[in-house]
């Protein structure tokens, strides 16, 4: 019998899965899987890459825009030492985003959202003005919302729909798919959690028509596949749209693939990461979700230490990042905030339970 995974290691595994997976998937983002196969065979290392054609060749292990969104959420949670609102995260946008990041690390539409954030309109109205309501902007970065609500699925869902309004409209498809990420993490952190219990929590708590129906379809189609090459081909049959803005980055595709990989890899973070990186299309985002969910269940035991060190090293060179904390420092900050939240809940329970 394997040793139980500590709650802190679940936090650490989740954040490590996101950051390393994002960095590993970034060099082949947008590629079809046959192009990855032709150039690398199986890609399972961190590589340098260039994005946005701006001449910045990024050190192997450099993370991208989705992790920058996540870092701001983590910073807001660390500052508050508790669950956060859209206003809390908006304030962190204003104080934490470096002006020079526009065109270097963030997506163009994020500059518009930041300008609106500075205008003083209510934070929960900002997402109404994003043209891309169905994207994975939040679903691939909302892991800290699941972690600060570890074991607390209803509040994880509530906070996705609160904080997510910075990026997308209330009850929009993007946020419905983001609840999958947060529910999976909140449930995976529970003592005794399993792959099946995480999937059960998703089915029990997420939208039955928008989310569960699509997940069930693709989980059924991939249920008996053992080889990842056949696995990715089967998913490509369902998800191959081209010719529209952000064609590979819609939340239903990214999250469905990630959940299927999580099940296929049985929560093994390294195996989930490598499978997702070689899936093609939005490789960094699929990997961030698949590896993040897996890490929240199984921790860091399958993640090579060299991958953590290289990603941390790349962060020291990342001059436009919103935070140069190490992966472990991000996890420690989140974990401390979670412990502070528990302490307040315990004190409240003792106070009111004595009456």
UniProtKB/TrEMBL annotation:
Q: Which Gene3D superfamilies match?
A: ADP-ribosylation/Crystallin J1 (1.10.4080.10)
Q: Give the record's keywords alphabetically.
A: Hydrolase
Q: Which Pfam families match?
A: ADP_ribosyl_GH
- Listed InterPro entries: ADP-ribosylglycohydrolase, Ribosyl_crysJ1, Ribosyl_crysJ1_sf
Disulfide bond as a keyword of this entry, yes or no, is no
Task: Name the protein family.
Answer: Belongs to the ADP-ribosylglycohydrolase family.
What protein name applies here?
ADP-ribosylglycohydrolase family protein
Q: The organism's lineage?
A: Bacteria, Bacillati, Bacillota, Bacilli, Bacillales
